[in-house]
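Why do we bother with holo predictions? Because pocket geometry can differ from the apo form. Keep that in mind while you read this record for 4'-deoxy-4'-aminopyridoxal-5'-phosphate.
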Amino acid sequence: MTIQLVEQLKTLDQKHFLHPTSSIEEQQKYGPAAIFCEGKGIYLKDLEGNTYIDGMSSLWNVNVGHGRTEIAEVAKEQMEKLAFSSCFATFSNEPAIKLAAKIAELTPGDLNTVFFTSGGSESNDTAIKLARHYWILKGQPNRQKIISRSLSYHGLAYGSTNATGIEGFRKFTNSPAPDFHYVDKDSPEELRRLIEELGPEKVAAFISEPVQGAGGVNLPKPDYFQKVREICDEYGVLFIADEVITGFGRTGKNFGIEHFGVVPDMMTFAKGVSSGYAQLGGVIISEKIHKDFCELSKGILMHGYTYSGHPTACAVGLKNLEIIEREGLVQNAKIMGEEMLKGFQALQQKYDFIGDVRTFGLLGAIGLVKNRETGELFDPLLSPIAVQEMTKRGLILRTVTYGQDTIVFSPPLIITKNELNEMLRIVDETFAYLQKEIIGNGVK
Ligand code: PMP
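The structure, written out:
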């Protein structure tokens, strides 16, 4: 594409496209960061001819990598046969039925019945509404309160925004919804105290990511979820695991919560269920909840989206899960995750400004600090400069700057050892630049 045409697109973008979770100021000043036009495996290409490693699987979601012809073919076939039909009023379709059954087969314990959505935010809103409705059916209508953890991210629809523990997202508007409460992310004791304080008879559910993603790839203590499960059981509170990032192999097991040996009452999923090839998500509920719904629900379940059970999206999901299984990508995430940690530790040896490094399968984080002993952060923070420099060198990563200065990683589950080394080489090269040009010369 000619430079003129790219410039034209950039101008149109600035004028007509309000971007999600983006700096309007930066967009207006510089135009879009890149206009992507192609993807293959772990790589993305933009209209200006630059190639990048997609170190975040785009938004933690393109787990099987870009450019999968067989998924495109399935989508084409399904669209030609039946692109869309409704699942309201008990109408159904084959891909939705088969995908629900497949997900039930993969999920732990008695999580066996699926409600479909178009993404993670809708899934968490759905879980919150199903939990509250469940208690109404059970004759405990005052159980409406939802508890979540500091630094959690559950999406940006209305309920999921209010459940999100990263305050900045809630402050975007000035009218928080009632009945949302927050606890320190590391303290099960605080959860117990809050339930007692609110009154257990008023608490509907506790929601948590098994490993926090957008909050900084924050790993829980090994016994955290065991304690949470016990507390929820003790007070009759439902436990919702948000597996939107951690679901379908990212952590080296099918689901993140499986690492901790507990089974939630509901699990929400999105992203990895379709690797982003179609907009798809959902909630899977336990047999116990489903049985109660079957026995107690009269009339219509007053919740549903046009695209709940979208035939094309579900056909894409099925093919995506088939690829994950056929190519052993869950196991690859485990093995490559271990390699990624070794790579991070080698970098940590080399650069004093690296604080904590952590991985959980193919989720990773490198924390940057001015002082390792005190944990003091750079001012201004270093990670935004770092990822900008990495982009220039052909690697796309993300920062987390809520009370920390962290670079997060979430490469596609297909990544090979060589590709991982290439990614780490760019990180190394960028850190060497930062050491010399930014930190070394006293800017920091
Ligand atoms: N939950 C978690 C854990 C997420 O990471 C995200 C998205 N980053 C969401 C929910 C929201 O998903 P979506 O953006 O598809 O609505």
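The CA atoms of residues 379 and 444 lie 7 Å apart.
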